[in-house]
């Protein structure tokens, strides 16, 4: 076994920072590469070659869930609290689980934007802070020292909910090594993540374009209902638009700008790594049209006995119906396999530091057939799109 972590292929590191936090000599630091993704660097002069960083890396050997259900329980669900639902990306279920942990005197970890719109994982301790963790952040989150913080809270006997992508959860599990009854893990279904550098440069471009400092940026605004629409604000301007009209967002949706490891994701499969798996229930109108909600529907996958116990605590706060992995997997492709790597990905970040972003972003925009399809989709009324989806689904079901 190697005596310390070495990343020879960038596909072999998810940037979870487990190695940095587990090192007893603190001689591993995460450094940003030219694309803006973090990778570990080892100070050879301080390293004692204990091999702990290699042993605990979740991509070397994935952790295993304890008390795993033989078959996961799956639901389509929408939170009854309309205020929380409106501020959530889909059905608001993350908030329900988070509030339950907080009610029990626990701590909730999740992704928030700091004052500079850097995505960072933070702990919150009361319901008044919940807004910080609500809403999607389609950018790599800096986990900082949150694994170490979780270990400290657990040693104090506190309950902890840790939310993130599957690789974040896997890193935490390998860091802790031993299962803790007070830890509840919740993964958000993930396509992949662009770098913080790319997002930072995109926000700088928007600030110049709109002639004002960006005061807010929401990837999943619900002003016109559940979907993929963003909203950004300056002091004098509010811009609300479909995702495809934003170069950063459009390239994200088509998998052009992800971290290299995302295209070989170890966790993009039906077998999940967290107690609870949450995502948008895309396609709910195909299986359960009467349950479609314009304000969002979550897919809830309960993978462990612990998840079932917490579902029983919060289920009276939600409207829900039973579903199946087959139904959820139809439109959540990363439950089946990793995102396919587009041919343009190898060169997509080239020149990000050398040419004006206004020029750089041209390669992120939609072109050709992508642009035509996007225009048609964005100009069809939502009610008509839903009818077309149902019709196509029925035709496919009949083998036509």
TrEMBL record:
Q: Name one Pfam family in it.
A: FrhB_FdhB_C
Query: Keyword Iron on this protein?
Result: yes
Q: Which GO terms describe its molecular function?
A: iron-sulfur cluster binding; metal ion binding
Q: Which residues form the 4Fe-4S ferredoxin-type domain?
A: 3-33, 38-68
Q: Which UniProt keywords apply?
A: Iron, Iron-sulfur, Metal-binding
What is the protein named? Coenzyme F420-reducing hydrogenase, beta subunit
The organism named in the record is: Fibrobacter intestinalis
Its ancestry begins with:
Bacteria, Pseudomonadati, Fibrobacterota, Fibrobacteria, Fibrobacterales
